[in-house]
Amino acid sequence: MYLNNDLKGIELHLHLDGAIRPTTLFEIAKLRDPAHKCANVDEFMHLLRPKSPYSLGKFLESFKYVLPIVAGDKEALTRMTLECIEDCAIKSGLCYVELRFAPYCLCGPSLDPEAVVLTVLAAIKRASRVYGLEARLILCIIREMPETADAVVQLAVKYQGQGVVGIDIAGDDSLWNPEGISNEIVKAYALAERYNVHRTAHAGENSPAAAVHEAVYTLRAERIGHGYNVVHNPSLYSLVKRTNVHFEVCPSSSIVTGAVHPDSLDQHPVHQFHLDGLSYSLNTDDPLITGKWIAEELEFCTNQLGLPLGAIHQSKLHAVKAAFLDTEEERAMLLKHILT
Q: Where would one find coiled-coil regions in this protein (predicted)?
Protein backbone atom coordinates (compact mmCIF):
# COMPACT_ATOMS: atom_id res chain seq x y z
CA MET A 1 0.00 0.00 0.00
CA TYR A 2 1.64 3.21 -1.22
CA LEU A 3 0.09 6.40 0.15
CA ASN A 4 1.02 9.98 -0.73
CA ASN A 5 2.10 11.81 2.44
CA ASP A 6 0.07 14.87 1.41
CA LEU A 7 -3.21 12.90 1.34
CA LYS A 8 -4.91 12.17 4.67
CA GLY A 9 -8.63 11.78 3.94
CA ILE A 10 -10.82 8.69 3.74
CA GLU A 11 -14.21 8.12 2.12
CA LEU A 12 -16.32 4.96 2.14
CA HIS A 13 -19.52 5.98 0.33
CA LEU A 14 -18.95 7.50 -3.10
CA HIS A 15 -20.91 6.52 -6.21
CA LEU A 16 -18.74 6.53 -9.33
CA ASP A 17 -21.62 7.61 -11.58
CA GLY A 18 -22.43 10.34 -9.06
CA ALA A 19 -18.88 11.70 -9.13
CA ILE A 20 -18.50 12.56 -12.82
CA ARG A 21 -17.23 16.05 -13.61
CA PRO A 22 -20.14 18.16 -14.91
CA THR A 23 -18.00 19.44 -17.79
CA THR A 24 -17.08 15.90 -18.81
CA LEU A 25 -20.67 14.66 -18.65
CA PHE A 26 -21.91 17.59 -20.73
CA GLU A 27 -19.10 17.18 -23.26
CA ILE A 28 -19.94 13.50 -23.77
CA ALA A 29 -23.66 14.31 -23.94
CA LYS A 30 -23.04 16.83 -26.73
CA LEU A 31 -20.82 14.38 -28.62
CA ARG A 32 -23.59 11.80 -28.50
CA ASP A 33 -26.30 14.32 -29.34
CA PRO A 34 -25.09 17.57 -30.95
CA ALA A 35 -28.69 18.83 -30.83
CA HIS A 36 -28.86 18.42 -27.04
CA LYS A 37 -31.42 20.87 -25.66
CA CYS A 38 -28.93 22.39 -23.17
CA ALA A 39 -26.64 25.04 -24.63
CA ASN A 40 -23.99 24.93 -21.89
CA VAL A 41 -22.93 23.08 -18.77
CA ASP A 42 -24.78 25.47 -16.44
CA GLU A 43 -28.10 24.78 -18.20
CA PHE A 44 -27.29 21.08 -18.12
CA MET A 45 -26.62 21.04 -14.38
CA HIS A 46 -29.76 23.08 -13.71
CA LEU A 47 -31.69 20.35 -15.53
CA LEU A 48 -29.82 17.59 -13.73
CA ARG A 49 -29.90 18.68 -10.10
CA PRO A 50 -33.08 18.16 -8.06
CA LYS A 51 -35.13 21.13 -6.88
CA SER A 52 -36.83 21.76 -3.55
CA PRO A 53 -38.98 20.24 -2.12
CA TYR A 54 -36.52 17.37 -2.13
CA SER A 55 -37.22 13.64 -2.30
CA LEU A 56 -35.30 10.45 -3.05
CA GLY A 57 -37.40 10.01 -6.18
CA LYS A 58 -36.25 13.38 -7.54
CA PHE A 59 -32.66 12.61 -6.54
CA LEU A 60 -32.66 9.28 -8.40
CA GLU A 61 -34.41 10.89 -11.37
CA SER A 62 -31.15 12.77 -12.02
CA PHE A 63 -29.46 9.51 -12.94
CA LYS A 64 -31.94 8.99 -15.76
CA TYR A 65 -30.03 11.82 -17.43
CA VAL A 66 -26.58 10.60 -16.38
CA LEU A 67 -26.58 6.87 -17.11
CA PRO A 68 -27.60 6.92 -20.81
CA ILE A 69 -24.69 9.29 -21.50
CA VAL A 70 -21.95 6.97 -20.21
CA ALA A 71 -23.42 3.44 -20.06
CA GLY A 72 -21.78 0.95 -22.38
CA ASP A 73 -19.07 3.42 -23.43
CA LYS A 74 -15.63 2.09 -22.44
CA GLU A 75 -13.86 5.34 -23.27
CA ALA A 76 -16.34 7.37 -21.20
CA LEU A 77 -16.11 4.96 -18.25
CA THR A 78 -12.31 5.08 -18.35
CA ARG A 79 -12.24 8.86 -18.50
CA MET A 80 -14.76 9.41 -15.71
CA THR A 81 -12.92 6.93 -13.46
CA LEU A 82 -9.51 8.48 -14.08
CA GLU A 83 -10.93 11.95 -13.41
CA CYS A 84 -12.74 10.73 -10.30
CA ILE A 85 -9.52 9.39 -8.80
CA GLU A 86 -7.77 12.65 -9.67
CA ASP A 87 -10.56 14.62 -7.96
CA CYS A 88 -10.43 12.31 -4.93
CA ALA A 89 -6.75 13.18 -4.56
CA ILE A 90 -6.64 16.84 -5.63
CA LYS A 91 -10.06 18.13 -4.55
CA SER A 92 -10.64 15.88 -1.55
CA GLY A 93 -7.16 14.95 -0.33
CA LEU A 94 -8.19 11.30 0.01
CA CYS A 95 -5.60 8.63 0.62
CA TYR A 96 -8.22 5.87 0.64
CA VAL A 97 -11.57 5.68 -1.16
CA GLU A 98 -14.15 3.00 -1.84
CA LEU A 99 -16.01 3.69 -5.08
CA ARG A 100 -19.28 1.96 -5.78
CA PHE A 101 -21.29 1.42 -8.92
CA ALA A 102 -23.86 -0.96 -10.41
CA PRO A 103 -22.33 -2.98 -13.28
CA TYR A 104 -25.78 -3.62 -14.72
CA CYS A 105 -26.49 0.12 -14.93
CA LEU A 106 -23.23 1.00 -16.70
CA CYS A 107 -23.21 -1.79 -19.29
CA GLY A 108 -24.45 -1.69 -22.88
CA PRO A 109 -24.63 -3.70 -26.10
CA SER A 110 -20.87 -3.53 -26.63
CA LEU A 111 -19.79 -3.63 -22.97
CA ASP A 112 -21.16 -6.31 -20.67
CA PRO A 113 -21.20 -5.99 -16.85
CA GLU A 114 -17.92 -7.89 -16.43
CA ALA A 115 -16.25 -5.63 -19.01
CA VAL A 116 -17.53 -2.64 -17.03
CA VAL A 117 -15.84 -3.96 -13.89
CA LEU A 118 -12.60 -4.64 -15.75
CA THR A 119 -12.64 -1.17 -17.32
CA VAL A 120 -13.07 0.56 -13.96
CA LEU A 121 -10.47 -1.67 -12.28
CA ALA A 122 -7.90 -0.85 -14.97
CA ALA A 123 -8.59 2.88 -14.63
CA ILE A 124 -8.33 2.99 -10.84
CA LYS A 125 -5.10 0.97 -10.94
CA ARG A 126 -3.62 3.41 -13.45
CA ALA A 127 -4.74 6.58 -11.64
CA SER A 128 -3.95 5.34 -8.13
CA ARG A 129 -0.29 4.89 -9.02
CA VAL A 130 -0.14 8.47 -10.28
CA TYR A 131 -1.72 10.11 -7.22
CA GLY A 132 -0.64 7.78 -4.42
CA LEU A 133 -4.00 6.75 -3.06
CA GLU A 134 -5.71 3.42 -2.53
CA ALA A 135 -9.03 2.91 -4.34
CA ARG A 136 -11.25 -0.14 -3.92
CA LEU A 137 -14.55 -1.07 -5.57
CA ILE A 138 -17.97 -2.02 -4.21
CA LEU A 139 -20.39 -3.56 -6.72
CA CYS A 140 -24.03 -2.54 -6.33
CA ILE A 141 -27.10 -4.68 -6.74
CA ILE A 142 -30.06 -2.52 -7.74
CA ARG A 143 -33.08 -3.13 -5.53
CA GLU A 144 -35.40 -2.99 -8.52
CA MET A 145 -33.28 -5.58 -10.42
CA PRO A 146 -33.12 -8.58 -8.04
CA GLU A 147 -32.63 -10.96 -10.97
CA THR A 148 -29.07 -9.58 -11.34
CA ALA A 149 -28.11 -10.06 -7.68
CA ASP A 150 -26.37 -13.42 -8.05
CA ALA A 151 -24.41 -12.27 -11.10
CA VAL A 152 -23.19 -9.15 -9.27
CA VAL A 153 -21.92 -11.26 -6.37
CA GLN A 154 -20.26 -13.69 -8.77
CA LEU A 155 -18.35 -10.73 -10.24
CA ALA A 156 -17.37 -9.57 -6.74
CA VAL A 157 -16.09 -13.05 -5.91
CA LYS A 158 -14.20 -13.35 -9.20
CA TYR A 159 -12.39 -10.01 -8.78
CA GLN A 160 -11.92 -10.22 -5.03
CA GLY A 161 -8.29 -9.47 -4.25
CA GLN A 162 -7.94 -7.52 -7.50
CA GLY A 163 -9.63 -4.35 -6.25
CA VAL A 164 -13.22 -5.42 -5.64
CA VAL A 165 -13.89 -5.62 -1.92
CA GLY A 166 -17.64 -5.68 -1.38
CA ILE A 167 -21.25 -5.52 -2.51
CA ASP A 168 -24.08 -3.11 -1.82
CA ILE A 169 -27.79 -2.87 -2.50
CA ALA A 170 -28.83 0.50 -3.89
CA GLY A 171 -31.80 1.99 -5.70
CA ASP A 172 -35.01 3.48 -4.36
CA ASP A 173 -35.18 2.36 -0.75
CA SER A 174 -38.56 4.07 -0.37
CA LEU A 175 -39.80 0.99 -2.28
CA TRP A 176 -38.78 -1.18 0.67
CA ASN A 177 -41.28 -4.01 1.15
CA PRO A 178 -42.34 -4.69 4.78
CA GLU A 179 -43.05 -8.30 3.76
CA GLY A 180 -39.36 -8.81 3.18
CA ILE A 181 -36.61 -8.33 0.63
CA SER A 182 -36.54 -10.55 -2.46
CA ASN A 183 -35.17 -14.04 -2.02
CA GLU A 184 -32.67 -13.50 -4.85
CA ILE A 185 -31.01 -10.68 -2.91
CA VAL A 186 -31.01 -12.63 0.37
CA LYS A 187 -29.30 -15.56 -1.37
CA ALA A 188 -26.80 -13.25 -3.05
CA TYR A 189 -25.78 -11.71 0.27
CA ALA A 190 -25.44 -15.16 1.83
CA LEU A 191 -23.18 -16.17 -1.07
CA ALA A 192 -21.07 -13.04 -0.58
CA GLU A 193 -20.64 -13.83 3.11
CA ARG A 194 -19.67 -17.42 2.29
CA TYR A 195 -16.83 -16.13 0.11
CA ASN A 196 -15.80 -13.39 2.58
CA VAL A 197 -16.94 -10.58 0.30
CA HIS A 198 -17.74 -7.54 2.43
CA ARG A 199 -21.31 -6.28 2.60
CA THR A 200 -22.90 -2.87 2.94
CA ALA A 201 -26.52 -1.95 2.18
CA HIS A 202 -28.51 1.21 1.60
CA ALA A 203 -31.24 1.15 4.24
CA GLY A 204 -33.17 3.52 6.47
CA GLU A 205 -32.57 6.52 4.22
CA ASN A 206 -36.15 6.97 3.05
CA SER A 207 -37.27 3.56 4.27
CA PRO A 208 -38.26 2.88 7.90
CA ALA A 209 -36.00 1.66 10.68
CA ALA A 210 -37.17 -1.89 10.01
CA ALA A 211 -35.17 -1.78 6.77
CA VAL A 212 -32.01 -1.33 8.84
CA HIS A 213 -32.98 -4.35 10.93
CA GLU A 214 -33.41 -6.35 7.73
CA ALA A 215 -30.04 -5.20 6.37
CA VAL A 216 -28.19 -6.10 9.57
CA TYR A 217 -29.96 -9.32 10.55
CA THR A 218 -31.20 -10.77 7.24
CA LEU A 219 -28.54 -9.56 4.81
CA ARG A 220 -25.88 -9.55 7.55
CA ALA A 221 -24.51 -6.23 6.30
CA GLU A 222 -21.40 -4.96 8.07
CA ARG A 223 -22.16 -1.36 7.14
CA ILE A 224 -25.31 0.64 6.45
CA GLY A 225 -25.54 3.29 3.78
CA HIS A 226 -27.31 6.23 5.44
CA GLY A 227 -29.55 4.46 8.01
CA TYR A 228 -30.89 7.71 9.47
CA ASN A 229 -34.34 6.42 10.36
CA VAL A 230 -32.90 3.94 12.84
CA VAL A 231 -33.01 6.74 15.44
CA HIS A 232 -36.83 6.70 15.28
CA ASN A 233 -37.03 3.15 16.64
CA PRO A 234 -35.59 3.18 20.20
CA SER A 235 -35.53 -0.59 20.64
CA LEU A 236 -33.77 -1.19 17.33
CA TYR A 237 -31.44 1.72 17.92
CA SER A 238 -30.48 0.22 21.27
CA LEU A 239 -29.88 -3.12 19.57
CA VAL A 240 -27.72 -1.59 16.83
CA LYS A 241 -25.63 0.28 19.41
CA ARG A 242 -24.51 -3.09 20.75
CA THR A 243 -23.31 -4.29 17.34
CA ASN A 244 -20.28 -3.25 15.33
CA VAL A 245 -22.38 -2.04 12.40
CA HIS A 246 -21.04 1.12 10.79
CA PHE A 247 -23.18 3.96 9.37
CA GLU A 248 -22.03 5.65 6.16
CA VAL A 249 -23.44 9.13 6.75
CA CYS A 250 -23.77 11.46 3.75
CA PRO A 251 -24.91 14.80 5.23
CA SER A 252 -25.56 16.92 2.12
CA SER A 253 -27.25 14.17 0.16
CA SER A 254 -29.44 13.39 3.17
CA ILE A 255 -31.04 16.77 2.58
CA VAL A 256 -31.26 16.53 -1.21
CA THR A 257 -32.92 13.11 -0.92
CA GLY A 258 -35.46 14.44 1.56
CA ALA A 259 -34.21 12.11 4.30
CA VAL A 260 -33.48 15.11 6.57
CA HIS A 261 -35.35 18.40 6.41
CA PRO A 262 -33.08 21.43 5.79
CA ASP A 263 -34.76 23.27 8.68
CA SER A 264 -33.85 20.46 11.12
CA LEU A 265 -30.10 20.26 10.74
CA ASP A 266 -29.58 20.47 14.50
CA GLN A 267 -31.54 17.21 14.73
CA HIS A 268 -29.60 15.38 12.03
CA PRO A 269 -29.15 11.74 13.15
CA VAL A 270 -25.36 12.07 12.93
CA HIS A 271 -25.48 14.16 16.12
CA GLN A 272 -27.06 11.23 17.96
CA PHE A 273 -24.66 8.76 16.38
CA HIS A 274 -21.76 10.84 17.69
CA LEU A 275 -23.19 11.37 21.18
CA ASP A 276 -24.01 7.69 21.57
CA GLY A 277 -20.66 6.43 20.31
CA LEU A 278 -21.91 4.65 17.20
CA SER A 279 -19.47 3.92 14.39
CA TYR A 280 -20.07 6.40 11.54
CA SER A 281 -18.19 8.07 8.72
CA LEU A 282 -18.78 11.27 6.77
CA ASN A 283 -19.11 10.93 3.00
CA THR A 284 -20.24 12.79 -0.10
CA ASP A 285 -22.39 10.14 -1.83
CA ASP A 286 -22.81 11.96 -5.17
CA PRO A 287 -20.80 15.18 -5.67
CA LEU A 288 -22.22 15.55 -9.17
CA ILE A 289 -25.67 16.05 -7.64
CA THR A 290 -24.84 17.85 -4.38
CA GLY A 291 -21.98 19.96 -5.74
CA LYS A 292 -19.81 19.02 -2.74
CA TRP A 293 -16.61 17.00 -2.54
CA ILE A 294 -15.38 15.99 0.90
CA ALA A 295 -13.70 19.31 1.76
CA GLU A 296 -16.97 21.19 1.17
CA GLU A 297 -18.87 18.39 2.92
CA LEU A 298 -16.81 18.73 6.08
CA GLU A 299 -17.24 22.53 5.98
CA PHE A 300 -20.98 21.95 5.76
CA CYS A 301 -20.76 19.62 8.76
CA THR A 302 -19.02 22.21 10.92
CA ASN A 303 -20.75 25.38 9.68
CA GLN A 304 -24.31 24.21 9.00
CA LEU A 305 -24.74 20.98 10.95
CA GLY A 306 -22.74 22.27 13.91
CA LEU A 307 -20.69 19.09 14.32
CA PRO A 308 -17.68 19.64 16.58
CA LEU A 309 -14.23 19.05 15.13
CA GLY A 310 -13.87 16.11 17.48
CA ALA A 311 -16.81 14.40 15.77
CA ILE A 312 -15.19 14.85 12.37
CA HIS A 313 -11.88 13.46 13.62
CA GLN A 314 -13.71 10.54 15.23
CA SER A 315 -15.51 9.81 11.97
CA LYS A 316 -12.16 9.29 10.22
CA LEU A 317 -11.06 6.81 12.87
CA HIS A 318 -14.38 4.98 12.56
CA ALA A 319 -13.94 4.91 8.78
CA VAL A 320 -10.51 3.31 9.01
CA LYS A 321 -11.88 0.64 11.34
CA ALA A 322 -14.86 -0.02 9.03
CA ALA A 323 -12.96 0.10 5.71
CA PHE A 324 -13.17 -3.06 3.61
CA LEU A 325 -9.43 -3.73 3.73
CA ASP A 326 -7.81 -7.05 2.91
CA THR A 327 -5.64 -7.34 6.03
CA GLU A 328 -5.30 -5.85 9.48
CA GLU A 329 -1.75 -4.86 8.53
CA GLU A 330 -3.23 -2.60 5.84
CA ARG A 331 -5.63 -1.15 8.41
CA ALA A 332 -2.80 -0.37 10.81
CA MET A 333 -0.81 1.22 7.99
CA LEU A 334 -3.78 3.37 6.91
CA LEU A 335 -4.47 4.50 10.48
CA LYS A 336 -0.83 5.43 11.04
CA HIS A 337 -0.77 7.35 7.76
CA ILE A 338 -3.88 9.37 8.60
CA LEU A 339 -2.71 10.21 12.13
CA THR A 340 0.84 11.27 11.24
A: none
The backbone torsions φ and ψ at residue 215, rounded to the nearest 5 degrees and listed phi first, read: -65, -40
Cα-to-chain-centroid distance, residue 3: 22
The full 3-state SS of the chain, as one line of letters, equals CCCCCCCCEEEEEEEHHHCCCHHHHHHHHHHHCCCCCCCCHHHHHHHHCCCCCCCHHHHHHCHHHHHHHHCCCHHHHHHHHHHHHHHHHHCCCEEEEEEEECCCCCCECCECHHHHHHHHHHHHHHHHHHHCCEEEEEEEEECCCHHHHHHHHHHHHHCECCCEEEEEEECCHHHCCCCCCCHHHHHHHHHHHHCCCEEEEEECCCCCHHHHHHHHHCCCCCEEEECHHHHHCHHHHHHHHCCCCEEEECHHHHHHCCCCCHHHHHHCHHHHHHHCCCEEEECCECHHHHCCCHHHHHHHHHHHHCCCHHHHHHHHHHHHHHCCCCCHHHHHHHHHHHHC
CB 102 within 8 A of CB 142: yes
Q: E strand or H helix at 154, and its extent?
A: helix 149-158
Q: Count Cα atoms within 13 angstroms, Cβ side, for 141.
A: 31
Read off the pLDDT of residues 272-292 as tens digits, 9 standing for 90 and up.
Answer: 999 999 999 999 999 999 999
Contact 141, 168 (CB under 8 A): yes
Helix (H, G, I), strand (E, B) or coil at 225: strand
Mode of pairing for the β-strands spanning 279-282 and 94-101: unpaired
Please say if 205 is a catalytic residue: yes
The CA distance from 324 to 209, in Å, is 24
Which DSSP helix (H) or strand (E) runs through 224? strand 223-226
Q: Is 97 helix (H, G, I), strand (E, B) or coil?
A: strand
Would the pTM of this model clear 0.90, i.e. be above it? yes
Is 196 in contact with 173 (CB distance < 8 Å)? Answer: no
Catalytic residue among 11, 134, 205, 248: 205
